[in-house]
Amino acid sequence: MSTADPLVIVGAGHAGGRAALTLREQGYDGRLLLIGDEPHAPYERPALSKGLLQGSAELAGFSLCGAQQLRALGIEHLTGQPVQALDTTARRLALADGTHVGYRGLLLATGGRARRLPGVAPGWRNVLYLRTHDEALALRDSLRPGARLVVVGGGFIGLEVAASARALGCEVTLLEAGPRLAGRVLPADIGDALLALHREHGVDVRLNARIEAFEGGSQVEVVSLVDGSRIPCDGVLVGIGMQPNIDLAQAAGLAVGQGIRVDAFLRTSDRQVYAAGDVCEFRLHLQGAFQRQETWRNAEAQGRHAALNLLGAELPFEQVPGFWSDQYDTSLQRVGDAGDGSPSVRRALASGGLLLFFLDAGRRLQGACAWGPGNSVAKDIKLCERLISAALPLPVEALADARVSLKTLLRN
Ligand SMILES: Cc1cc2nc3c(=O)[nH]c(=O)nc-3n(C[C@H](O)[C@H](O)[C@H](O)COP(=O)(O)OP(=O)(O)OC[C@H]3O[C@@H](n4cnc5c(N)ncnc54)[C@H](O)[C@@H]3O)c2cc1C
User: Where are the alpha helices (DSSP H) in 63-207?
Assistant: First the structure.
């Protein structure tokens, strides 16, 4: 390492792109290198399963910045260039093209890749995954009206793809191995509402479904289940979660768990190296367990925060976590911590939606989850976020009563 070495960001996705832009916004005018393995400028991924599939959004509309802007800001963006090795002693990276780059500060924002379904031969060309823009384009090509799509996995990616595919006129069968949709992250009431919604829209949802085999020649033609049923198909989308890209950090000897472990400042076990976004494993509270957040909000906040700390701010990272998902003409949003997933209070919304509150023993709001038509729950969720930060004891009857505005509770 020399003092002329750049600040380097590995992973030119959402968190990495946001970090690079923040470094310039904050006045850092030294050399700045953003190294990515995709061919594109940094972009946000939520539209990949929604607008991009449905034809209402294209890459330029959800890019964080274009190549021209990166150049204008003096951000050296290497594309199609996976970083292959990290030497934290020499503070040096080895790139796929055989070159080496020194760094004086490093951010790892390597995100994750779609988890592969065990037992699927790599040669099946109609078994698709969804993490990147290019994977989304391949999926979009296969969603022709009347095409029969089997979606494996009833989490957010699977559910959003199912909704987009129905909007495009495909026949959709969705296979979920568990007893509920999105059971890992959503309370049962909202999982049930989603199940009804997808069935109303004509998705053949099968819960507790166990795949026996994929049958076909050069591509899958039938998915057979352990219960004996056989589902003919033209394509399969596997949405069974993502695998964090920790390999580089692990091989370099950095502390890793389910992600790259960081302290309260998003610093890894090496003081010169930070991590942010989906790949980052952090404690939300001082005493809390290590966790990763696979959300837009987290990538945005941690990318920005890591940049500030790379510049020496020494700020502990704090955030109220949250995410959203859009399916058909409904939206669901969650903010804060939903504990064991059993809501303390339910509020039936006039719109037909549902708002669930998660309280602690002192009746202070810890988290909220809502589901409803259009963007109707956004305002309530924003107010819930303020109630979480306010940490006030709340009246349970008022929370349950949709006639009581949450704003009033905040004022009280
Ligand atoms: C289809 C889809 C829909 C989503 N919808 C929502 C939503 O509705 N709401 C929500 O809250 N969140 C949503 N998310 C989640 C959100 O997009 C992610 O949490 C966010 O993109 C994470 O950003 P990141 O920068 O950590 O990772 P990424 O954006 O994945 O960026 C990581 C980048 O690093 C690159 N990389 C990895 N290893 C290397 C290496 N060795 N060298 C160089 N580059 C490397 C990767 O290829 C990638 O380009 C969605 C995600 C997907 C995939």
Answer: 67-72, 133-142, 156-167, 188-200
